[in-house]
From TrEMBL:
Domain named Fork-head: residues: 236-329
Low complexity bias: start-end ranges: 43-53, 110-128, 142-151
Region of interest called Disordered, as start-end residue ranges on this chain: 1-53, 94-165, 328-351, 495-558, 580-646, 676-718
Database matches in InterPro entries: FH_FOXM1 (IPR047516), Fork_head_dom (IPR001766), FOXM1 (IPR042839), TF_fork_head_CS_1 (IPR018122), TF_fork_head_CS_2 (IPR030456), WH-like_DNA-bd_sf (IPR036388), WH_DNA-bd_sf (IPR036390)
Residue ranges, compositional bias (Pro residues): 689-706
Compartments it resides in: Nucleus
Origin: domain of life: Eukaryota
Stored CDD domains: FH_FOXM (cd20029)
Organism: Apodemus speciosus
Protein name per its UniProtKB record: Forkhead box M1
Main location class: nucleus
Keyword Metal-binding: no
Residue spans binding DNA: 236-329
Length: 761
DNA sequence: CTATGTAAACAAC
DNA sequence: GTTGTTTACATAG
């Protein structure tokens, strides 16, 4: 996305790895759960089907299987190289032929290049330079589990979890693994530099969680590390500080990290910061932490340690692995190229770089920006009645590109295209909670935690008085963090003020008032709150630009999108479900000490600099995507056919438009949504347990719908859904539905297509 | 105008 | 000295 030096990439939608993903970031716990989720049995069927279907006119390499759960739906695995248009044409024809009776809906997924090795599906364009690296990477990866083709981070998981589990303690254990693993891999590629030195981390303090996590990381890393990517060192990661912080935090089980650990994590994973960057980068990290509302500071019970967490509603659970995608040697064209630009050419780098300075651009790319375009995201598209509209171009495009192109083009050409509003998913609900750790002593419930549960409330909270209301919540929550309120909710306003809009618009009437979260908090917390508040007060007053509220879109940040992969998230879902505890936990694992959250960063009006305060409103905002028109496109709200969302909505008002600011074509407000959705979908499984019971408990309305997502996303019916984010998509799934048919509500799509389609792996 | 990055002033520990 | 917050400014899109 952003090329400018200053702007690092932003991850937009993240693609999920097809293969089983375990939730990358999620906690270990899920593991158990998640695994079950996948329908294995179906595979066989699928495979058979595949054989059948594949036959058609479709180009070789394409596999078609019936969607395990969706009627009249087939999944088409397309090699990256494939000519999408032709495929679409064929599918379209097929769909027509079939009519209502036959498969009329197709989900296109990139199977990675036909040729590509398993491990890296996409050949994309690695930078020319990189070719070597690519190779290297492959090698590297090879050893690792991940190697499997999909970018996915973890293979089915396994190891990590174990470890995690091992770490009883907690946070560290869980999620980290996954993410870390992947991350690690990535790292390895990048450079040995950072990694090599595991020792560093050891140092890490005692922070409870941190330690564990890190350690693990270290461990893993080493293995990976070795490889090449010399460049990596010199190169500045294509990620923004915000993204890196998220990666770091999400790499931990608890989804929280101390500042120091964040520094360490970044240094370890991005050698550039360790070796080349100016010392001021740490200042920038701090600045980002303070600036963005999504980052919430929690204080350990004892008050000694401050942990930075990501506001659940805002957390996409991005992890480095998710972002990173090995480049395939093969296709130069890959979208990535496009992205490559993003990297920043920093002048700084140059200056600083003593070491490596000049890497060819290509080289830089190594780190892939998040956006892999094609592969993973699911983009349901409904063909307009006249299909013609769809891809005009005859040109072949690498899948990834194609996907992106398609979307864009479609959008353009076909007026009809709609972008599905983001579905909302409540993150929270979805969100992977940090592991369900045993609660630590207290659980401070974070507002966050609550949020998910109570999105609506949150909004109201303001109204409500602080202390008193806890009602809904089962447990008291502490929220230091910015209260939900702050979080942007999906508001109507389209984009306009992206940031602001959230807040303002629909959500809370008063946009700004940041209130204290008090309401949420339990008495106990109050104390903490108080503390927090103090600051807030200050802040509020002062705030200027200050915190940027979560933008719904979150946009930049790396967002995860899960399409099929949803499986990945499952874990999280599972967790949720499992977690005995209610929501709160979800969001935040508390520490023993019951962290206090920092007061919300409120949003105050501010001055120039956006401060966190500004935006926020509900977290939910993230979730929903309101329909809107964008650039001519309509975004109608996608409705979820089912109730998947059911819950969600109401309060959230899916309908609301969110303004997602996606400038371009927003599909979903935030990838998160997608993510969320996915999980749900995925969730269909057992785990899914849709909204964890607990959640609901608190709020009757349980707006938070956790579940829904896919369906929502799918809103096939709606029309085309394009992912604006093109870039980001690593995979794009296209659902093509033929007019006559209704859409499918889609069940949970969470399927690992890889199971059915080997290539995907 | 927005998002991001960078630098720096300050405050609280 | 570290951690956090906030300003201010610069830059790219």
């Amino acid at each position: 996305m952003r090329t400018s030096p200053r702007r690092p990439l932003i991850l937009k939608r993240r693609r999920l790895p097809l293969p089983v993903q375990n939730a990358p970031s999620e906690t270990s716990e899920e593991e158990a759960k998640r695994s079950p989720a996948q329908p294995e049995p179906t595979q066989a069927q699928a495979s058979q089907e595949v054989a059948e279907s594949s036959s058609c006119k479709f180009p070789a390499g394409i596999k078609i299987i019936n969607h395990p759960t969706m009627p009249n739906t087939q999944v088409v695995a397309i090699p990256n190289n494939a000519d999408i248009q032709s495929i679409i044409t064929a599918l379209t024809a097929k769909g027509k032929e079939s009519g209502s009776s036959g498969p009329n809906k197709f989900i296109l997924i990139s199977s990675g290049g036909p040729s590509s090795h398993p491990s890296h599906p996409q050949p994309q364009a690695q930078a020319s330079n990189d070719s070597k690296r690519t190779e290297v990477m492959a090698e590297t990866l090879g050893p690792k589990p991940a190697a499997k083709g999909v970018p996915v981070p973890k293979p089915p998981g396994a190891l990590p979890r174990q470890r995690q589990e091992g770490c009883a303690g907690g946070e560290a254990a869980g999620c980290m693994l996954d993410s870390s693993l992947t991350n690690i891999q990535w790292l390895g590629k990048m450079s040995s530099d950072g990694l090599g030195p595991c020792s560093i981390k050891q140092e890490l303090e005692e922070k409870e969680n941190c330690h564990l996590e890190q350690n693990r990381v270290k461990i893993e890393e080493p293995s990976v590390a070795s490889t090449s990517w010399p460049d990596s060192v010199s190169e500045r990661p294509p990620y923004s500080y915000m993204a890196m912080i998220q990666f770091a935090i999400n790499s931990t089980e608890r989804k929280r990290m101390t500042l120091k650990d964040i520094y360490t994590w970044i240094e370890d994973h991005f050698p550039y910061f360790k070796h080349i960057a100016k010392p001021g980068w740490k200042n920038s990290i701090r600045h980002n932490l303070s600036l963005h509302d999504m980052f919430v500071r929690e204080t350990s019970a004892n008050g000694k340690v401050s942990f930075w967490t990501i506001h659940p509603s805002a957390n996409r659970y991005l992890t480095l692995d998710q972002v990173f995608k090995p480049l395939d040697p093969g296709s130069p064209q890959s979208p990535e190229h496009l992205e490559s630009q993003q990297k920043r050419p920093n002048p700084e780098l140059r200056r600083n770089v003593t070491i490596k300075t000049e890497l060819p651009l290509g080289a830089r790319r190594k780190m892939k920006p998040l956006l892999p375009r094609v592969s993973s995201y699911l983009v349901p598209i409904q063909f307009p009645v006249n299909q013609s509209l769809v891809l005009q171009p005859s040109v072949k495009v690498p899948l990834p590109l194609a996907a992106s192109l398609m979307s864009s083009e479609l959008a353009r050409h076909s007026k009809r295209v709609r972008i599905a509003p983001k579905v909302l998913l409540s993150n929270e609900g979805i969100a992977p909670l940090p592991a369900t750790e045993p609660l630590k002593e207290e659980k401070p419930l974070l507002g966050e935690g609550l949020l998910p549960l109570l999105p609506i409330q949150s909004i109201k909270e303001e109204e409500i008085q602080p202390g008193e209301d806890m009602p809904h919540l089962e447990r008291p929550i502490k929220v230091e963090s910015p209260p939900l309120e702050e979080w942007p909710s999906p508001c109507a306003s389209l984009k306009e003020g992206l940031s602001n809009s959230w807040e303002d618009s629909s959500c809370s009437p008063t946009p700004k008032p940041k209130k204290s979260y008090c309401g949420l908090k339990s008495p106990t917390r109050r104390v903490s709150e108080m503390l927090v508040t103090k600051r807030r007060e200050k802040r509020e007053v002062s705030r200027s630009r200050r915190k940027q509220h979560l933008q719904p879109p979150c946009v930049d940040e790396p967002e995860l999108f899960f399409s099929e992969d949803s499986s990945t998230f499952r874990p999280a879902m599972a967790l949720l479900a499992e977690s005995s505890e209610p929501a709160p936990q979800l969001s935040c694992p508390q520490e023993e000490g019951g962290p206090f959250k920092t007061p919300i960063k409120e949003t105050l009006p501010v001055s120039s600099t956006p401060s966190k305060s500004v935006l926020s409103r509900d977290p939910e905002s993230w979730r929903l995507t309101p329909p809107a028109k964008v650039g001519g496109l309509d975004f109608s709200p996608v409705r979820t056919p089912q109730g998947a969302f059911g819950p969600l909505p109401d309060s959230l008002g899916l309908m609301e438009l969110n303004t997602t600011p996606l400038k371009s074509l927003p599909l979903f407000d935030s990838p998160r949504e997608l993510l969320n959705s996915e999980p749900f979908d995925l969730a269909s499984d057992p785990f899914r347990s849709s909204p964890p019971p607990h959640l609901e408990g608190p709020k009757p309305g349980s707006p938070e719908p956790q579940a829904p997502s896919l369906s929502a996303n799918r809103s096939l019916t709606e029309g085309l859904v394009l992912d604006t984010m093109n870039d980001s998509l690593s995979k794009i799934l296209l659902d093509i539905s033929f007019p006559g048919l209704e859409e499918d509500p889609l069940g949970p799509d969470n399927i690992n297509w890889s199971q059915f389609i080997p290539e995907l792996r």
